Amino acid sequence: MAIITSEQVAAAYAALATGQREQIAQMWAEDLRWLVPGHNPLSGWKNNLDEFIAFMSTVGQLSDNSFRMDPVAVMTAGNFSADVTRNTGHRAGQPGRRLDIDVIHWLTWRDGKVIEGRGAIFGDGTAQYDAFWARDDATGTTREVIARYYETAQRGAWDEWLTLFAGDVSGDEQLAGHFEGIEVLQGAIGAISYGYSKFQMIPKHIVTDGEQAVVVWRCDAANRAGTPIAYNYLPDREVVGANFFRLENGKIKYMRTIHDETAFAPFNHPTNPKAPPA
Fold first, then answer.
1. DSSP letters of 132-161?
2. Helix, strand, or coil (residue 94)
3. Chain segment 61-112, per-residue pLDDT in tens
4. What is the Cα–Cα distance from 200 to 218, expressed in whole angstroms?
């Protein structure tokens, strides 16, 4: 049984980086199968070398050739290897739409060439990956629309964020209550921009069913003074919440936000167990 080395792994990626089929074929088998993770237009199996090369070409086109896989670690065992990379880049024509995730690739080798590869993404990176490669048209699948909801909010692209909603959108928020009309969301953007020095809602789980979706997210935010949005009595506890979405014709028609009031409410709010007596 051949023993794959880290040098062979590096050589395989170096050949891939040339974009030249002749060089790529020296390290990647003609009957290669490659699984792209996530739920986006690029995801799924690539079932031969030409499909794999076409996939990599699409990655280059969509990222204006900014996509990089910087090696972090390589492990080998017999005919297998696992490499961890930091994948970065930006979408073509959209320098603010960035990708920065940690990925592991599990490779199977035969006769010195890769015959199968599977990618896996750490932590919250899958949602970021899906949002990064989502279609740029006005509509998309439910998962793509929801992924863009969080991705645009995280980078503060509020004008783009608003395009995801129907004009007559309505919803309910745990503290703010019921709202109707996109004008309310336009006003909320101003309040968020003024009231928060940092505002991140990072998806942990996205579940879709037709034109409905539920998302569990974690909050990484701080108020205007820089005080983290957290539990006063348990500062290390993760702040999480959930959204329910209903879409019509690719636009968000209704949304509901649910979260523990304690972390988001003022210190003297009655839900805070350390609030002073009324």
1. HHS--SS---HHHHHHHHHHHHHTT-HHHH
2. strand
3. 889 899 999 999 999 999 999 999 999 999 988 888 899 999 999 999 999 9
4. 8
Which amino acid is present at 213? A
Domains and CATH numbers, the chain: 6-127 (3.10.450.50), 156-264 (3.10.450.50)
Note whether 52 and 115 are within 8 A (CB): no
Exposure string (b/e) for 184-223, b if CB count within 10 Å is 16 or more? ebeeeeeeeeeeeeebbbbbeebebeebebbbebebbbee
Residue for token pair 């740029």 = 136
Q: What average pLDDT does this structure show over 190-200? A: 80
pLDDT(137) > 60 = no
Q: What's residue 181's pLDDT?
A: 94
Assign 47 to helix, strand or coil: coil
Closest to 97 measured CA to CA, from 162, 190, 160, 185: 160
Q: Return the pLDDT at 233.
A: 65
Percent of all residues in the chain with a pLDDT value above 70, rounded to a whole number: 89
In DSSP terms, 158 is beta-bridged to none
Give SS3 for 91.
Answer: strand
Two tokens, residue 91: 């979408």
Alpha-carbon distance values, 240 to 164, 203, 212 (Å)? 23, 10, 20
The pLDDT > 90 percentage for the chain reads 50
Report yes or no: 110 and 76 within 8 Å, Cβ to Cβ. Answer: no
**How close are the terminal C-alpha atoms of the chain, in Å?**
74
